[in-house]
Design goal:
The complex is a heterodimer of chains A (about 900) and B (about 110). With about 900 residues, chain A is an alpha+beta fold. In chain A, about 55% of the residues lie in helices and about 15% in strands. In chain A, the strands form three sheets. In chain A, strands 1, 2, 3, 4, 5, 6, 7, 8, 9, 10, 11 and 12 form a twelve-stranded mixed beta sheet that branches. In chain A, strands 15, 16, 17, 18, 19, 20 and 21 form a seven-stranded mixed beta sheet that branches. With about 110 residues, chain B is α+β, with helices and mostly antiparallel strands. Chain B is globular, with a radius of gyration of 15 Å. The chains are: A alpha+beta (about 900), B alpha+beta (about 110). At the A-B interface, helix 1, helix 2 and helix 4 of A face helix 2, helix 3 and strand 5 of B.
Chain lengths: ~900, ~110
């Protein structure tokens, strides 16, 4: 038995490595047999030619016997695959134009999918790096009801974190974390970066060991002040310290504090991703202490996120109940401090446990929806590309049907033939997939810009993307290979031979026409999507926000530990405003505490005759100088704005927005009403003006209710100012920063944030949708145009004789053009009609993502129809012109 | 005439090849000729189908192939029985005679 196995193995290996020699041997062996047999017939009296014929007949189909013999060698599969691939490669080398077209088409299709997959995988599926047992880990969300509207949030107060931690029993681990932008370094090297802050227990969620030093511990993360220590991010350590190993104990300036470096996190560690990856980690108590000394005492400052790990055996439902009970208890504690908070039965506070991927949680932004849509669109592009490749392969198979028929007649089995065809399509798909990976890698940078994230992995080094790409490639290879294999299998190609068909005869395949129509239809659907998103984006941009964006910038003051008495802070603000206002090109400046889409302030409000103001909605606090409304461009609808008269000591006033006036005093005059701030014993503030509402939390919200107080009449100074310039604020940023920086004492500094940049982030989902649909729709259109062109061009080539005869018989240029163009346009019209139906049906799902555009927008449909018809015209014009110039003599000579 | 000729039962071709080669090394054509003559043209073996069988037997190590000069002085591939092949032939021949004997007994029952 063993010797048999060894012999078998030896034989197989020899067969594998000496394939050519063995093939020659087999040839020689069989030829010898046939000639020897023929010799025998000659001796029996047959003439030599007849003898050879009889010998061949007696022997049987040589090709099939060779196949069977190879089979018997036990190498069939391996050998056949290698053989088929070599054969296919030879065939592709012989037609480089065809190969290039197919590979490019597939590269675009597969590349688009690989790139989008990389982003979606990070956003939705892949657990954060190093996280231990991700299925037991959850992000905490808290929900409550405001004016009948459910409202979920994920940033909490430190006090809430303490409440929830101490009152729950279901969790093995609870940790708090956050990321914040901070100035890094000193002097001219100041850069702004994202810094992570976490409770000491946060690192226990991960199987991450510092590459250098250690993470901070519970002693260093203890209330109230924490310890001034920092753990560097691996990437930052590499880029800024060149990976030096002697950095432990060195100081690092983060925001206002000088911290000591105690460790370096492992490569790729980013906690639970949340925007930009942080450059360093600091204890959460140390960070909170930098911001406010009372952070752990009250519920005024919501900023941190909570992550929990359920105890083994505790189900999510039970843990959620446990957490909800703790939240209700905490709600009551908060209500004891702030009686304006709605009671339990109204607010119905409860907890939600979400997955670690924020984009799959209850607060997922429109980015996720749009991302999934883009994923679907990318797949459609791939289908279009694959249809095109199938079409080209089919054309090629028809061109080669004589060769195929001859091979079938020679006794090549159908199975082998299928193998040949599949080998060719798989080889093409493989080349396309490889090129696609390179494209995805190159396109990754573009995707990073379109999505908010830095999460786009390098396609060439990411195993998950590679596996996805390989699977896609395989599927495409098999599916496109089946297109030409099907008719070959059914024997349609052989009947062609039997009927005496020649390479030159005209044969229009219905399957090919169908594929072109499908491509056209999908392109139409995608382009309609693109059109709808482009219109949405332009609507979003044209949206009336209640303030101007382009000419306004926000100047943020970062005191960095420089402590100033309150009166000096107010003086500094005034100096900054004066300095800014004196700069050429600056129109006006104002102090402010809130910035739209950036940070929010609010206070307890008390209005005579209303039990609980907060039950009527959320109201945002803004403070301003006399020039506030001029600077922002917010219109005053009634009464007046803030003036120089509204000083400290003057009668306290308040300006409210339209929606707030409407909610607090429905049907009544708001001017002259009384509002108290912070306590119902505070002095009455008289409503002196009503201004338009502003959008500050979401672009889709209606009526952001806001109230404005004169900066001078508030104890706390503002954190920054708004400056309005002539022209675009982005261009003036640096000049303003340089001038204002001169006013800043000590290590404190200013940062400039143009409003346009803040709004840019908000508009990103729509811009991303518009860009991606346009790019992918355009891609699909190009591919479909190539498909149409190839079908028409192929038809024209096949009909050369017929057209020649027509021309010889007197057909004019116009007739021939009409004949060919008509063919192309008929296919295009089929595609347009099918695509329009597809777009109308698909529009129902896309409707919610659009912004003030109907999914049946006639302009978009009309434009797309026109674009496709024109494209079809151009695609068929080239072959049509060629057809019109067929030389009848030449064509007839082919006969 | 056709009724007199028999298709080979499955698997017996191997046995016949081994038996033929037990008389001495032969090339493919000679094996086919010999089968034809010895069976008095009764056995219907398409000449080509011999070769897959020969290569299968070679892979199993029951026969070995060498290139040599044929009777008309051409290069031909000769197959010879190996010792493993001889043992295999003995085993298969015994099994075969047992089978034919048993089938014969059953058929004679009338």
């Amino acid at each position: 038995m063993l010797t048999e196995l060894l012999s078998d193995l030896r034989y197989r290996v020899r067969a594998l490595f000496r394939r050519d020699a063995l093939e020659q041997d087999l040839d020689q062996e069989l030829r010898f047999h046939i000639e020897r047999q023929a010799e025998q017939y000659v001796r029996a009296g047959d003439p030599p030619a007849e003898a050879l014929r009889k010998a061949r007949a007696a022997f049987g189909g040589v090709e099939r016997i060779k196949d069977d013999t190879r089979d018997a060698r036990g190498l069939m599969l391996l050998d056949a695959i290698a053989h088929d691939l070599r054969y296919a490669a030879r065939g592709l080398r012989l037609s480089p134009g065809f190969t290039l077209a197919v590979v490019a088409t597939l590269a675009l299709g597969i590349g688009a999918n690989a790139a989008v997959f990389g982003v979606l995988d990070r956003l939705l599926f892949r657990p954060p790096p190093y996280l231990r047992e991700p299925s037991a880990v959850h992000r905490v969300y808290l929900a409550s009801t405001f004016r009948g509207q459910p409202f979920t949030h994920h940033t909490f107060e430190f006090r809430r974190y303490l409440d929830l931690t101490s009152a729950t029993r279901s969790f093995a681990q609870v940790a708090a974390f956050a990321t914040f932008p901070a100035a890094l370094g000193t002097g001219p090297d100041i850069t702004e970066a994202s810094v992570g802050t976490a409770s000491a227990g946060f690192f226990d969620f991960f199987d991450a060991r510092p590459v250098l030093g250690r993470f901070f511990d519970r002693v260093e993360d203890s209330m109230p002040a924490g310890a001034p220590v920092a753990v560097l991010d691996y990437g930052y350590w590499q880029s800024h310290y060149g990976g030096r190993r002697d950095i432990l104990g060195m100081p690092i300036q983060i925001g206002p504090a000088t911290l000591t470096i105690i460790g370096v996190a492992p490569r790729g560690f980013s906690g639970l991703p949340d925007g930009r990856p942080p450059v360093a980690w600091v204890p959460i108590t140390a960070y909170a202490w930098m911001r406010r000394h009372d952070y752990y005492l009250n519920y005024n400052w919501g900023w941190l996120q909570i992550v929990v790990r359920t105890k083994p055996g505790v189900r999510v439902e039970a843990a959620t109940q446990d957490l909800t009970a703790a939240y209700r208890q905490s709600w009551l504690a908060e209500r004891a401090m702030d009686p304006s908070l709605a009671p339990l039965d109204v607010a119905q506070p409860h907890a939600v446990l979400g997955p670690t991927q924020a984009e799959r949680g209850p607060e997922a932004g429109p980015g996720t929806h749009i991302g999934l849509w883009i994923g679907g669109v990318a797949l459609i592009v791939l289908v279009v590309a694959a249809a095109n490749v199938a079409n080209l392969l089919l054309a090629r198979a028809f061109r080669r049907r004589r060769e195929i028929a001859v091979r079938l007649a020679l006794g090549v089995s159908r199975r082998r033939l299928l193998g040949h065809l599949l080998a060719e399509s798989l080889l093409l798909a493989g080349l396309g997939g490889a090129a696609g990976l390179v494209l995805a890698w190159a396109g990754g940078a573009a995707l990073t810009r379109i999505f908010t994230t830095d999460l786009v992995p390098a396609a060439l080094t990411d195993p998950r993307t590679m596996v996805f790409c390989a699977l896609l490639t395989l599927a495409v290879g098999v599916l496109t290979g089946l297109a030409p294999a099907l008719p070959a299998w059914r024997g349609d190609l052989v009947t062609g031979l039997k009927a005496g068909a020649r390479e030159g005869s005209y044969h229009r395949s219905r399957l090919r026409a169908l594929l072109v129509v499908v491509q056209g239809a999908l392109s139409v659907a995608l382009l309609v999507g693109a059109g709808l998103f482009v219109r949405s984006f332009s609507n979003v941009r044209g949206l009336h926000l209640g303030y101007d964006v382009d000419p306004v910038l926000y100047v943020e003051r970062n005191m960095r530990g420089v402590k100033l008495p309150e009166d000096q802070q107010a003086a500094l603000n005034r100096r900054l405003m004066l300095a800014a206002a004196e700069l050429p090109g600056v129109v006006s400046a104002t102090e402010a505490v809130s910035v739209p889409f950036y940070n929010f302030e609010s206070r307890g409000l008390f209005v005579p005759g209303i039990d609980s103001v907060s039950r009527l909605g959320r109201f945002q606090l803004q403070t301003g100088s006399p020039d506030f409304f001029r600077t922002m461009g917010t219109r005053i609808l009634a009464g007046r704005g803030i003036t120089t008269e509204d000083r400290r000591g003057a009668p306290p006033i308040i300006v409210v927005s339209e929606a707030m006036a409407h909610r607090l005093w429905p049907g009544r005059k708001a001017l002259g009403q009384c509002v108290r701030i912070d306590a119902d014993t505070a002095p009455c503030r008289t409503v002196v003006g009503i201004v338009e509402d502003i959008k500050q939390r979401s672009l889709t919200e209606s009526g952001g209710a806001t109230y404005y107080l004169p900066a001078d009449q508030l104890d706390e100074g503002a954190y920054g100012l708004f400056v309005r310039v002539v022209g675009r604020a982005v261009d003036a940023s640096e000049t303003i920063r340089r001038r204002l920086q001169q006013e800043m004492p000590g290590a404190s500094y200013v940062t400039i944030v143009p409003l346009a940049r803040i709004l840019d982030t908000e508009q990103r989902p729509w811009r991303a949708g518009a860009t991606m649909f346009l790019v992918l729709g355009g891609l699909a259109l190009v591919v479909a145009a190539i498909g149409l062109y190839s079908v028409i061009a192929y038809d024209v080539a096949q009909r050369t004789q017929e057209l020649g005869v027509r021309i010889a018989l007197g057909a004019r240029l116009r007739d021939v053009l009409r004949l060919v163009l008509g063919d192309g346009l008929r296919l295009a019209l089929g595609g347009i009609a099918a695509g329009a139906v597809l777009a109308l049906v698909g529009g129902r799902w896309i409707g919610t993502l659009l912004f003030a555009v109907s999914p049946r927008d006639p302009t978009v449909f009309g434009a797309v129809t026109l674009v496709l018809a024109l494209t079809a015209l151009v695609a068929s014009l080239i072959p049509a012109l060629r057809a019109a110039h067929v030389d009848p003599n030449l064509a007839l000579r082919l006969e | 005439m056709t009724e007199d000729r028999l298709d080979l039962p499955q698997g017996t071709l191997d046995l016949l090849i081994l038996k033929t080669l037990s008389l001495g090394p032969q090339h493919g054509w000679a094996i086919s000729e010999r089968l034809h003559q010895v069976s008095r043209a009764t056995l219907q073996v398409p000449q080509g189908s011999l070769y897959p069988a020969l290569h299968r037997l070679e892979r199993r190590g029951w026969i070995a192939a060498t290139w040599g000069a044929s009777e008309n002085n051409r290069r031909a591939k000769y197959y010879a029985l190996t010792s493993a092949g001889r043992r295999q032939l003995d085993a298969e021949a015994r099994a075969w005679s047992k089978l034919t004997h048993a089938v014969g007994l059953v058929m004679e029952m009338g």
